[in-house]
């Protein structure tokens, strides 16, 4: 460590920032989010939603997520969501003095989140062994495309590659069409949620079981593979590789997207026989529900052409409002296929406050997704939206014991 960076240890007891979270089950925990773009930052976002003091550490050039996607007045809109409940600091810890500052932050941290390629932190002298020598209680989440070890560990990877390799794209799309990738960061989101779960498990082991810090090796590939159903088991036991079925299910029918006569669309799922029977009665074909094969979901799936024709014709002759009302009254499972604007005006979404309005310091009132789940005793909350680059440098580094003159010099030199 460079002796030129002056750290005053007594400053760590200073007053908390007004932007730290004051409630939630993770209140009192400090998370250093050194990830960028999506998966690792989503994991940290979830911890911040439930009370952790999350410090977003960016290179002085900024996280690329700040400029990804739609923007307004130069402010990235996805950034406002993914960086909510995070204080923001800039730090180039590939430099010697940057590493000194990072080590100072690590001493007071509970969790460190990163998604550098395997070996990068080690090359900077910041591998897990070094971090644990500084803070043995530290939980380290390492997010990569393919994991820390293996033939593909050093490959550059984004969620798209995981969506391709996992089998997701192979199973998605029309039966006669090409494999289809999702239009959003599905693998990143699944990995982010998984990472937050892994961190809380590690914290429980540390704090409730008398354990110590540990390293979590999380790939983008494995969580997505894990939620894709029994594909490996089916292939192992039956030699079948699940393929594309459009909006149908290979396991039951009717299950599809159907168009109404006013060009609105609805989705129907009849996984249980009782729901399937109600659908057929509603569309005027109760005799089909009395066929011996109808009680078996797999047999219904084999007759999807017939069932889709009967259900689809009935829906195609009616308006969206009529179809939804009829299915709802009959106790048959149906949901509108919304675009985001339609979703945001739905009465259930409004009642549940699934979309909330937050006050943003740059854009004023903005709307975004609410926290993912509700807890009766220790609820989470969105306290503030994504902040400006390095906005909390003074507060955070002062808390870590850095004096004002040193901060000014480090800023001039591009370390922060």
TrEMBL record:
The keyword Disulfide bond does not apply. InterPro entries: CoA-transferase_III (IPR050509), CoA-Trfase_fam_III (IPR003673), CoA-Trfase_III_dom3_sf (IPR044855), CoA-Trfase_III_dom_1_sf (IPR023606). Residues 1-12 have a biased composition (Polar residues). Signal peptide: none annotated. SUPFAM superfamilies: CoA-transferase family III (CaiB/BaiF) (SSF89796). Residues 1-25 are annotated as: Disordered. It comes from the Bacteria. GO terms for molecular function: transferase activity. Keywords: Plasmid, Transferase. PANTHER family: L-CARNITINE COA-TRANSFERASE (PTHR48228:SF6), SUCCINYL-COA--D-CITRAMALATE COA-TRANSFERASE (PTHR48228). Belongs to the CoA-transferase III family. This is Acyl-CoA transferase. It comes from Rhodococcus opacus.
